Fold this protein.
Amino acid sequence: MSFYSSENPRFDRFVLGNAPVKQIATGFDWVEGPVWFGDANCLLFSDIPNNRIMRWIPGEGDSTFRQPSNYANGHTRDQQGRLISCEHGTRRVTRTEHDGSITVIADSYGGKPLNSPNDVVVKSDGTVWFSDPHYGIKTDYEGYRAEQENPCVVYRVLPETGAIEVMVDDMNCPNGLAFSPDETKLYVADTGRMFSNDEQHIRVYDCDNEGMLSNSRVFHKIDRGCSDGFRIDADGNLWSSAADGVHCISPEGDRLGRILVPEVVSNVCFGGRAKHQLFITATTSVYMITLNRTGVQAP
Ligand code: MG
């Protein structure tokens, strides 16, 4: 059995012929938001409909990290290693401090509540970038049904002042996002409005030293399912969720190959001692494959 499908000779050097796709945890309803803590030797991920964040430890398995989680979705870590979380239920982005207390980074724009923050990334300058589609307030499945009061955009929060700015406003529903390794490009997935047939694709923006974006354009369109979440490796290749697994997209926007996963994938993150393992959240389970790649992930 093959765990991947190569479509370019470059991809053959990214994978290891004898490394399996392993199911490392299962029994969830919709897992998302994987984030690796090398210092604690664990993976955190969200089981959104069950309102909990799970923790997986190699050799030990999974247990509940936080419940209720306010229907947390995407996570990342900031430059100080702190957990940054998107919460559907409370419609906010939070930071878990080293002492365990919770700090609210953003919960409103223009005096109105956010929709349901979905995915988040922290730039090296400390600014927090997150997408705010409406998925978590459209039904009661992954949050609480509510009126949408702000458009579906990508925001940036400045660390010094807490000021919040709209950075991307040309999408139906922004979702996963990541910077290129040198932070000169920002990739954002548009997964379309719920209950509609909007086009779904990944866009890319040029990003200057001040974080200002320009030159919005389509980067890649996943042809099986959609790109919900993704991470970037050290050479700028993008590893995206898809309906049939994980698609590896070159910096030029071409698909190089696929890792085949038996459930619909929502998101991925790099981890392990050399950031060489790809953790894959996929519907009811989490999978892991060791790659001949190094991931880019704060801190
Ligand atoms: Mg997402």
User: Anything to note?
Assistant: The pocket of magnesium ion is lined by residues 32, 74, 118-119, 175-176, 228-229 (CB under 6 Å).
